[in-house]
């Protein structure tokens, strides 16, 4: 399987018995993560369509098959709408939405030939369900992923391929830590569990969608957020 770096997804799939290939623009961390799971690392910029195509071909040539894609790459810089430049918009949409398309398109083509595949996208609660000041472009990219997923599920259902998404809430990754202490503290307070998620929480959801047994689930998403999106009453969090 190819997965675009997330420690939790890598670890959970490795534990479940998958041979893991990590593709990331960050060579140092990606290489290290692949060694931890006796996997393989490939340097990849998901915005580069030709490289995405070459990488999938290389995997098929070397491994003979390509069963699972976890399209997880994403950035979440914060910028308010009136300060948002065209460059800000394009960068986030290029990596999160076009990058997801670039790698997923090639994976679907390869999986169709074999008549089997599991594609798992990492979307978010932000955009499809909630809003966050500064994340309008990000939210648009994450909602866009789900729009893509539903049509892709229809196009590939008859080829034994499912495509589903995970919608994480707040998961303690390097990217989330970079939002700063105030963000982390404030967010903990609005999650009913009073905890941020662990990367492995996303990994277990990925294992579920990646399994052979979930063949009858496609075009769906699962929220993994410790109940963050649930409260409706003012004192809903105890
Ligand atoms: N951490 C969280 O609370 C949440 C994360 N997500 C999503 O989960 C995914 C992973 O996020 P995190 O692990 O938190 O972020 P992170 O910042 O810790 O990791 C993102 C990874 O993407 C890689 N990357 C960036 N640009 C790339 C490119 N052009 N080509 C290839 N790789 C590239 C980075 O090198 C890094 O390894 C993202 O899609 C994010 O939107 C969704 C909801 C919540
Ligand atoms: C980054 C993101 O999507 C969050 C924290 O919901």
Write the layout of secondary structure elements.
Elements: E1 2-4, H1 7-15, E2 21-24, H2 27-36, E3 40-43, H3 49-63, E4 68-71, H4 86-114, E5 117-122, H5 136-156, E6 161-168, H6 174-177, H7 181-189, H8 199-210, E7 221-224
Helix pairs in contact: 1-8, 3-4, 4-5
The structure holds 1,4-dihydronicotinamide adenine dinucleotide and butane-2,3-dione (BUO).
Helix content: 40-55%
Strand order of the largest sheet: 3-2-1-4-5-6-7
Distance between the termini: 41 Å
The count of domains is: 1
SS elements, strand count: 7
How confident is the prediction overall: mean pLDDT?
A: 96
Category from helices, strands and their pairing: alpha/beta
Q: At CATH's second level, what is the architecture?
A: 3-Layer(aba) Sandwich
DSSP strand (E) fraction? 5-15%
List the total number of helices.
8
Task: Report the CATH superfamily.
Answer: NAD(P)-binding Rossmann-like Domain
Characteristics:
single chain; 238 residues; alpha/beta; Rossmann fold; 7-stranded parallel β-sheet; 8 helices; 46% helix; binds 1,4-dihydronicotinamide adenine dinucleotide; binds butane-2,3-dione
